[in-house]
């Protein structure tokens, strides 16, 4: 198995160095969405960020470390938005909550479609990225919080296994619907059916 170096060479401490670091990550984000993984080089990133290539290598050992930081910020952005949705969803009844939660995940991820396409189809080490490996536990936390809040309104014979399967069903279906939408189906219909199946499962 090929080894990848995902860690920056150093982390910025001062405002100026943080600005350079963030400019490089933002440039890489833009270029990945525009050109895809294979179409981006460190020279492209440095040029887009308006910094010397030597400055890039001061912080990042290679393109993969830059891509890892793009993934970190993508996951943080998505999780921050999902966290903001949780209180609203928890105030709803289970049937409404399932539909609202699924709609929120779809809406938030749909905005990131260009990057999702790159990480889903092109980056050869997506599942090995630390940020990506943290997604499943975080989604499980969200799902568990909703289960606890629902109390007696929801019944699961094996909560641990069922919540894991529900999380996989919802997340996998939504990602696939975004990166490879069926031409003969309306996404709204798919999401509504998914919400109904989740609701039926927990009754």
List the helices and strands and how they pair.
Blueprint: H1 15-35, H2 42-49, H3 53-59, H4 63-90, H5 94-110, H6 113-121, H7 130-133, H8 135-150, H9 159-179, H10 187-202
Helix pairs in contact: 1-2, 1-4, 1-6, 4-5, 4-8, 5-9, 5-10, 8-9, 9-10
Description:
This protein is mainly α. The protein has two domains: 15-63, Arc Repressor Mutant, subunit A, CATH 1.10.10.60; 71-202, Orthogonal Bundle (Tetracycline Repressor, domain 2). The protein contains ten helices and no strands. The chain has helices at residues 15-35, 42-49, 53-59, 63-90, 94-110, 113-121, 130-133, 135-150, 159-179, 187-202. Helix 1 (15-35) packs across helix 4, helix 1 packs across helix 6 (113-121) and helix 4 (63-90) runs antiparallel to helix 5 (94-110). The longest helix has 28 residues, at 63-90. It is elongated and about 60 Å long. The chain starts with 14 loop residues before the first helix and ends with a helix. The mean pLDDT is 90.
Quick summary:
By secondary structure, this protein is mainly alpha-helical. It has helices spanning 15-35, 42-49, 53-59, 63-90, 94-110, 113-121, 130-133, 135-150, 159-179, 187-202.
Q: What Rg do the Cα atoms give? A: 19 Å
CATH architecture of the largest domain: Orthogonal Bundle
Q: Mean pLDDT, rounded to whole units? A: 90
Number of helices, where a helix is a run of at least 4 consecutive DSSP H or I residues: 10
What share of the residues does DSSP label as strand, in percent?
under 5%
Structural class of the helix and strand makeup? Answer: mainly alpha
Count the E strands: 0
**Helical residue percent?**
over 70%
- The shape, in one word, is elongated
Fill in the CATH topology of the largest domain: Tetracycline Repressor, domain 2
Helix/strand order: HHHHHHHHHH
Structurally, the number of domains stands at 2
In the CATH scheme, the class of the largest domain would be Mainly Alpha
Largest sheet: none
Low-confidence stretches: none
Q: In angstroms, what separates the terminal alpha carbons?
A: 44 Å
